[in-house]
Amino acid sequence: QKLTFSLKIAISSSLSKIHLNVSHGRLCASSTSFSQRNNSSSANLKVDHDQTTGVAVMHMQSPPVNSLSLDFLTEICITLEKLEMDKGCRGLIITSSQPKVFSAGLDILEMYGKSPERCGEFWKAVQEMWLKLYGSNMVTIAAINGSSPAGGCLMSITCDYRIMADNPRYSIGLNETMLGIVAPFWFKETMVNTVGHRNTEISLELGLLYKPAEALNIGLVDQLVPEDQVLSAATQTMTKWLAIPEHARQITKSMMRKSTIEKLRSNREADIQNFVNFITKESIQKSLRMYMEMLKQKKA
Ligand SMILES: CCCCC/C=C\C/C=C\C=C\CC(=O)SCCNC(=O)CCNC(=O)[C@H](O)C(C)(C)COP(=O)(O)OP(=O)(O)OC[C@H]1O[C@@H](n2cnc3c(N)ncnc32)[C@H](O)[C@@H]1OP(=O)(O)O
């Protein structure tokens, strides 16, 4: 049965509108914009799309710490799909509107005390976000204006380039082992593809979180700038990347990432089963509970 629905998105200019049509599971965007800037918002995301430059800035605004819940992941995936389909969007900058945090990573509450079915649904959404970002044809830049542990770091390293605020209070890394959990193979491979095998081995085994200067030193981020310049630096870098012949850049990106992406694509169900079996274990649930208590105590 043909599935068709239209979603009207309010845009800053009253003259502008975008229609999203979902047909046979494909999402297509057609724009009849008379303005050069499209701003759209959903519950936890604000997207500023400058039609003149072809660059969209996606601001994560899911309080308090942009943790990636099933709902938030779904929102991110819908937005990414929409931007990917929009020929007028060639570059994406991802940043945070929350103070001091880029993203706290996966929402721990989605992994604690939930049914296997719900855990499976959650993991599928995590996979989907990674597939969309790592396989994007757009130039993607993470403007990391706060701490970015675990899934927040993953999100950053799926991007083509990372600019971080030079503030020693912030940290970034795949710290899963500190929670008593294990980064799956596609988290690990994204990290290897970014900082190499040895750095990844040390980093994952010890669950390290790096200060900005350390992250720059191992190549986990590409550039440090003063906090108030993160977005402008990302915009400047984007201009350089968008000047490269597009087709050649896209094919090169795909060549670099294809084998990692294929490995997950062809094993999605098994990967979900692995996750569900692992995360619902009594011992893992206990580790997660202790970690959450530790987070609360840190506050007190
Ligand atoms: C062999 C088979 C393998 C198969 C694969 C198996 C498993 C893989 C599984 C999972 C992979 C997971 C990756 C992840 O992303 S796990 C999440 C890891 N995240 C963290 O460790 C970050 C924890 N948070 C922090 O360190 C700090 O909150 C932060 C530095 C981000 C911000 O500090 P700040 O001081 O500003 O804020 P807090 O007071 O600490 O937090 C405010 C509020 O938010 C709650 N919270 C924080 N992080 C999370 C989170 N990730 N999920 C849910 N909730 C979070 C925190 O508890 C506070 O709540 P409250 O006390 O105000 O109620």
**What is the strand tally?**
12
| CATH C-level name of the largest domain | Alpha Beta
CATH topology of the largest domain: 2-enoyl-CoA Hydratase, Chain A, domain 1
Instruction: Give the strand line-up of the largest sheet.
Output: 4-5-6-7-8-10-12
Give the H and E element order. Answer: EEEEEEHEHEEHEEHHHEHHHH
Helix content: 40-55%
**Radius of gyration computed on alpha carbons:** 19 Å
Give start-end ranges of low-pLDDT stretches: 1-35
* Name given to the CATH homologous superfamily of the largest domain: 2-enoyl-CoA Hydratase, Chain A, domain 1
How far is the N terminus from the C terminus? Answer: 55 Å
Bound molecules: ligand LCMDX3IU
**Mean of residue pLDDT values:** 90
What's the helix count? 10
CATH architecture call of the largest domain: Alpha-Beta Complex
Describe the structure.
It catalyses: (3Z)-dodecenoyl-CoA = (2E)-dodecenoyl-CoA; (3Z)-decenoyl-CoA = (2E)-decenoyl-CoA; (3Z)-hexenoyl-CoA = (2E)-hexenoyl-CoA; (3Z)-octenoyl-CoA = (2E)-octenoyl-CoA. Pfam families: ECH_1. Homotrimer. The protein is an alpha/beta fold. It has 2 domains: 35 residues; 263 residues, 2-enoyl-CoA Hydratase, Chain A, domain 1 (Alpha-Beta Complex). It has 10 helices and 12 strands. The strands form 3 sheets. It has a 7-stranded mixed beta sheet with strand order 4-5-6-7-8-10-12, with helices on both faces. A 3-stranded antiparallel beta sheet has the order 1-2-3, covered by helices on one side. The chain has a two-stranded parallel sheet with strand order 9-11. A hairpin with a 4-residue loop joins β5 and β6. α1 runs parallel beside α2, α2 packs across α9 and α4 packs antiparallel against α8. The N terminus is likely disordered. The protein binds ligand LCMDX3IU. Ligand LCMDX3IU binds next to α9 and α10.
